[in-house]
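DM between two lab members

TW: hey, do you still have the NAD(P)/FAD-dependent oxidoreductase entry open?
JB: yeah, one sec
JB: this one, 478 aa:
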Amino acid sequence: MSEALTQLEADVRADLARIAHPGAAWLEPKTGPDGNPALDVLIIGAGQSGIAIGFGLMRSRVSNILLIDKAEEGKEGPWLTYARMPTLRSPKDYTGPDLDIPSLTYQSWHEARFGKESWQTLDLIPRAHWAEYLLWLRRTIGLPVCNGCELLEIAPAADGLLAARVKHAAGVETLYARKIVLATGQEGMGCWMIPAQLAHLPASSIATVADDIDFESLRGKRVAVIGAGASAFDNAATALEAGAAEVHLLCRRTQIQVIQPYRWLTFRGFLRHLSDLDDAWRWRFMRKVLEMREGFPQPTYDRCARHANFILHEGAPVEAARETGKAIELQTPRGAITADFVICGAGIDMDFAGHGELSRFAGNIATWADRYQPPEGDRNERLGRFPYLADDYAFTERVPGKTPWISDIHLFAIASTMSFGASGSSINAMTTAVPKLVNGLTRGLFRADVERHWASLSAYDVPQAVVARSARKTEEQR
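TW: and the structure you got?
JB:
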């Protein structure tokens, strides 16, 4: 480790010590059915969101926590797997998992790692550097993480606890916790969509942008990419750079979307208070944002456009698809396109029942369609399938009383978007969204123990001073 990084870590410890007040422990671990202490909070996912949540809890003196992630250490999140852009798209000075601690920002780490001049000349953050920074952050603040550990099921347990059945290298075990946070990023509550018109194609001919694609095998092949968001362009560019003969990008819009709504909403008022609005306003804002979809920056487009064999088709939704020998023919309003391989970048649709860990209560998770009916012209069935969350990011019940324990399961992921706006998958929202979640978690833990706290106050008898009584009698006493 460099001298500069060693000094930075010392600065981090000093900064955190200066803002440690109040430092009093306030939680007593409960005992699980197995006789062992139960966790106060179990966090599923140790990517950027899980790290930020864990850090926020530790700063709130909730240290009896554990983060688990099915990926190996350093491979959490998309950064070194299916993220196929060279750099992050967020401006380099956006803060996030540092939770506004200057010495923990990416800038501080980058300057210590590569020098201040490197930061000054940096345009956007390389995604591999972001992954390295997240690992450094997690180690520096001392988060307890178990990698190679996959959540299989959540169920209720005795004494108000939740039972999380997990699988790791040593086998399957059950962890007990008072609260569980699903910090599961993009796929936590849904699945990457393959349009119905393509669903019958053989698995060897089609993939989503999140799949492990062998791009080298596409050398000399014709590739069609469905969708025109940033991830679709990233996959198109990766195929072109791997030597694909042709890459066709099919955009359903008559004009490709170049406006990025997530740049507009990056201000404190929206990030902090969208969730305080009534359902009608929340629906109106998020329908506008999500139907616009996420735009792409100029370098993302240029990465494709520099290739003469890149063809952009606007106003070309796929109407039908059929196999023609070893190829795929895609029918669009602008004619047929022939491809050897198809990559779908059509986004994510909610599919609670498709996630085994949610199977016990998937059918009773309330959705936006259960809670709010927008005006006729504002309806959107896909957005109506998003979960309708409480003000602490907790699941709510479709049928009250059927699964009351799900109020201790909190969702911080892309599926939180309809209830909270940019939050569980957005760097720029972390410094407002994570404190809101942590406040909800600690509020629930405090309320559940309120009788114990009252008894503690009632028994509190620690004197703050010793009053010495004078032995000299007053004139009146003589």
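TW: got it. DSSP finds 15 helices and 17 strands in the chain. The CA atoms of residues 367 and 385 lie 6 Å apart.
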